[in-house]
Write a structure and sequence with these properties.
Length: 270
């Protein structure tokens, strides 16, 4: 950010439409958020490549998804080191002892200390760490309501739904069609629960990627003339505990993880 001196210089790069797709109310609010390093500039989907390249120094465009995640993690760790972690633990109803806050990601312990150092029971990949840190920073602590809603009903959901379908629901549906142990494995690995839901799916499972952020995955088997379907539902309190970007990242991570597991299974069964 060295050669940017004020938010107006960032604002000038934006299209001024105030379309809110970056989750800010206005382009100006977004410019301020970028200036304060609360948001990466590429969170505005309307910047053209030339602008991004020209302002490469400002944007610090990472080369790979992993680098981007690593950067995001570092930024979030720094932010967490600046907050009162014991208060955050109270807000989230999480454990706080020995200067560390502990939550469970899919039932596995994950901790961060007051200096921003992370530790976890098992390896937790970047797709989970970014949402977990955002949850610790911004989660309201509101308890799940037990009312399930779709991704499109979440704040910022409609404009991201096409991506969500493409990167999260469709890959899982394809897996569920061919890999019959998918849900059994999900329940085992992720400490989930099979339930009878009021949605008339053939299979419904509930997972807890984060303590106050459950998701329900429903699958309809193919029937004569009807394709199978898979949808992921969220608790009505989700917007209070996790932002839409983190939600998307988390579900993308789940889909990627199971694609890997299924590949591994396929290799074993041959
Ligand atoms: S997404 Fe871009 S154009 Fe839309 S409000 Fe945000 S900054 Fe402005």
């Amino acid at each position: 950010m060295s050669h940017i001196n004020n938010p107006m210089e960032i604002y000038k790069l934006l299209n001024g439409s105030n379309c809110k797709e970056c989750n800010e109310q206005t382009c100006l609010a977004f410019a301020v958020a970028v200036f304060k390093e609360k948001k990466p500039i590429h969170a505005c989907p309307h910047l053209d490549k030339k602008v991004l390249e020209q302002y490469g120094g400002v944007v610090e465009k990472p080369n790979t998804v992993d680098e981007y995640k690593a950067e995001a993690i570092e930024m979030l760790k720094r932010k967490i080191s600046l907050i009162d972690l014991s208060k955050a633990a109270q807000r989230l109803g999480a454990r706080f002892s020995d200067n560390r806050l502990t939550i469970k990601i899919f039932g596995k312990k994950f901790s961060i200390d007051t200096r921003g150092n992370l530790s976890s029971e098992v390896h937790i990949n970047a797709y989970m760490v970014v949402p977990a840190l955002n949850y610790i920073l911004n989660g309201s602590g509101k308890s799940p309501q037990g009312n399930w809603i779709t991704f499109r009903e979440l704040k910022g959901g409609p404009s991201r739904y096409a991506h969500f379908q493409q990167r999260c629901e469709k890959p899982l549906k394809r897996l569920a069609d061919t890999y019959t142990d998918l849900f059994k494995d999900m329940l085992e690995i992720f400490d989930g629960k099979k339930i009878v839901s009021n949605i008339d799916s053939d299979i419904s499972i509930i997972l807890h990627p984060l303590p106050l952020f459950p998701i329900m995955i429903c699958y309809w088997k193919p029937e004569e003339g009807l394709e199978s379907a898979l949808h992921i539902y969220f608790d009505a309190s989700s917007d209070d505990n996790l932002d839409i970007e983190s939600n998307y990242t988390l579900n993308e991570g789940i889909a990627l993880m199971f694609e890997k597991i299924a590949l591994h299974h396929g290799a074993q069964n041959q």
